[in-house]
Amino acid sequence: MLWDYAQPVTIRFGKGRAMEIKDIAEAMGLHDGIMVTPKFFVDSGEAQRLIDASDGAVSTVFTDFSPNPDVTEVDACAEIIRKNHCEFVVAMGGGSAMDVSKAAASICLTDDSIADYHGTGKAMPQKHLPIIALPTTAGTGSEVTCVSVLTNRKLGKKAPIVSDGFFPSVAIVDPELTYSVPPKITASTGMDVLSQAIEGFWSKGHQPICDSCAAHAAKLVFKYLPIAVAEPHNEEAREKMCEASVIAGLAFTLPKTTSSHACSFPLTNIHGIPHGEACGLTLDYFARINKDAQHGRVQEFARGIGFKDVDAMADAIHDLKVRIGMRTGLKDLNLTEEQIADLVRISRHPNLYNNPVEITDDMLDTMYHYLASTD
Ligand SMILES: NC(=O)c1ccc[n+]([C@@H]2O[C@H](COP(=O)([O-])OP(=O)(O)OC[C@H]3O[C@@H](n4cnc5c(N)ncnc54)[C@H](O)[C@@H]3O)[C@@H](O)[C@H]2O)c1
Ligand SMILES: [Fe+2]
């Protein structure tokens, strides 16, 4: 087996480390930073606290983007970067803030729109501004990935763009930033961690270093996610979920995600199901499909993280969703045959081809009919 491993992001992990933006900017000789963050952190005063601590290194703030950020929001951010001659980007937020930052940090050095690169196969320019990423959800792992997931609402399209230029220079993973995440978002983002870990493991692009990261992250999620949801101020659970999140990011950024992420895109785009909840919805289903793939290594994974076999792990994923209030079916949506056909069609996304078992349209059709009849 041939494999490569490279990970260019420096990770600074631990409570209180969000205050280190100033040191990092100084060490890298950077000035005039822009902070890209949800309005929530401006309203809570957290953005200002970190800007003050940056001692002048960060001077501009951009908040004008939504969850599942649109290509037009990236273009608007790039325009502000150009206008203010910003030299680096501080991406503080969940996957949405980080994905806007990554795309804007590249596109701002061109006259292009990010739409020219979104789902078109056109390679991103390699020049980009340095990014310091501070994840505030646990989470997408976007702080260590070369992926920016964007939506083009005009074309009804959600898709990742992959570019080596999207790797942040530094990821500051400070669990304190996640204390304010409400239970529903903790639950959904936690299911994203689990999906990314498990899919990174069984992806056709799997490799040994990412395998170990996947197992470590998945084990942490089963143990700590229910606690983080039930007790938002449990510091140990928050810290362990941040650890799981960044390590799951390392587990999937090279192998890439597979079937559950492919299916999540139409579930989010058409039916508004949050990203992590959408990924988790099909994770146990695909675990059962993939259980004997890759000469038993998926079974080995399940046993390695403490289950009798893959079926027991799939049961545990289902139980976890019930316990943390995530959906296990789509019955409430009263899906029509036409809507199911759309889900099948749009799930045929490049990530689907990373799945270790070939997923046919018939298999997707059976799965969506099953989910459509399940609470
Ligand atoms: N780039 C990648 O590698 C990658 C991987 C997985 C998912 N994604 C993408 O990331 C996006 C989802 O990111 P997400 O799940 O982190 O959600 P998000 O960034 O969309 O945030 C969800 C909501 O939580 C709020 N929020 C974030 N942090 C908070 C905090 N500490 N306290 C209170 N509220 C907070 C946000 O303001 C927002 O309203 C999706 O678009 C998804 O496709 C990207
Ligand atoms: Fe994800």
Structural description of this entry:
With 375 residues, the protein is of the alpha/beta class. It folds into two domains: 10-177, Rossmann fold (3-Layer(aba) Sandwich); 183-373, Dehydroquinate synthase-like - alpha domain (Dehydroquinate synthase-like, alpha domain, Up-down Bundle), CATH 1.20.1090.10. Helix content is 49%, strand content 11%. It has 14 helices and eight strands. The strands form two sheets. It has a six-stranded parallel sheet with strand order 1-8-5-4-2-3, sandwiched between helices. It has a two-stranded antiparallel sheet with strand order 6-7. Helix 4 crosses helix 5, helix 6 packs parallel to helix 8 and helix 6 packs parallel to helix 10 (275-290). The protein is globular, with a radius of gyration of 20 Å. The model has no long low-confidence stretch (mean pLDDT 97). Fe (ii) ion (FE2) is lined by residues 140, 192, 196, 261, 275, 279.
